[in-house]
Amino acid sequence: MQNHRAFPERLERRFASVWTLSVRFVGRFEGARARSSRASSATVHQLTMVSMGRIDTIRGKILGDASTRVRPWHLPSRSLPSQSRSKGPASRFVPKDLVWEGWVRRARPTTRISRRANTTKARSAAATLAMAKKDTDVWQTRVDLAATYRLCDRMGYNEGICNHLTAMVPGSEDQFLVIPYGMAWSEVTASSLLLVDGKGNVLEGEGTVEDTAFYIHSRIHLYDPKNRGCVLHTHMPWSTALCCLKDMKLEMCHQNCLRFYNSIAYDTEFNGLVLNQNEADRLNSVMENKHVLFHANHGVIVVGPNVAEAFDDLYYLERAAQVTVLAMSTGRPLNIISDEVAHKFQEDLKNGKNEWATLHFESRKRELLAGDDADFCT
Ligand SMILES: [Zn+2]
Question: What are the pLDDT digits (tens) for 325-339?
Answer without folding.
Answer: 999 999 999 999 999
